[in-house]
Amino acid sequence: MSYIITVATFISIQAIVAYGLNIIVGYAGQISLGHAAFFGIGAYSAGLLATKAGLSFWAALPLVVAICAVIGIICGLPSLRLKADFLAITTIGINFIVESLFLYVPFFGGALGLGGIPRVVFLGNKLKGGEFLTLCLLFLALVMFLSWWFSRSWMGLACISLREEETAASSMGVSPVKFKLVAFVLGSVIAGIGGALYAHQMRFIAPSDFGFPVSVMLLSLIVLGGMGTFWGPLVGAIILGSLPELARPLMEYRMLIYSLLLLGMIRFQPQGLLGEESVVSRIIGRHVGGDRS
């Protein structure tokens, strides 16, 4: 039972981070292949504030959000001037730079990583197992509500219009710089929250936990589930979070599997499992239509 709880906890955290990426890629239409960087920034910020400053998870969380927002702005502004392949390369570069800082700067623990991160304490009780899973699920529900609200707010609608046709949206007064930056910062902050939960779950983090393969995995989650859909990141996290546990002999080939999955979905199901033109959506629509008739 404890094993299932642990797997469910990691799936919840991955889903949180994936919802942040979905805002950037799915709603705003920006290519991001370095989202693990902000996942790591959130984790290391929470870990350092807990181990070096002695702050609790709750006291550190607003600072983690602020740090991720500021770094999101710093990284987002240069990226807004780039498109397509150049934007993808830039985000990959951000991921490698952040990972290198964690690896080579002694303040972050270097290659030895950062340990001694305490458990989350709530009302004097250290949360672990099912209690910590409940906390992660509450944060996931909050992030899902935030994603739902964003997709229906004027900011989200502006981002979606820029994704569909940037030139036409700009001619109607929608600022690409303003709204893409809002999406980038919001996605970075959500990834940071997921990172903070991850740090307190693992209690030891290392630079390799936030490398480029993790960014590919996160992108695979939303591509599989459906970019720009509400349930897509959650469905992708459940499927890809469960498969490695069901097929442990294939763990060494995880990167290959993610890459093949990305290529296959982009080629045959670019809308993902839950997209408007996906096989799943057509099957559901056929059954719903049949019931009505």
UniProtKB/TrEMBL annotation:
InterPro entries given for it? ABC_transp_permease (IPR001851), LivM-like (IPR043428)
**Transmembrane feature ranges:** 7-25, 31-50, 57-80, 86-112, 132-150, 181-198, 210-231
What subcellular locations does the record give? Answer: Cell membrane
Q: Which GO terms describe its cellular component?
A: plasma membrane
Instruction: Recall the GO molecular function terms of this protein's record.
Output: branched-chain amino acid transmembrane transporter activity
Q: What is its main location?
A: membrane
Q: How does it sit in the membrane?
A: Multi-pass membrane protein
Which controlled-vocabulary keywords does the entry list? Cell membrane, Membrane, Transmembrane, Transmembrane helix
Query: Which CDD domains does the UniProt entry name for this protein?
Result: TM_PBP1_LivM_like
Question: According to the lineage, what is the superkingdom?
Answer: Bacteria
Q: What is this protein called?
A: Inner-membrane translocator
From what organism does this protein derive? Dethiosulfovibrio peptidovorans DSM 11002
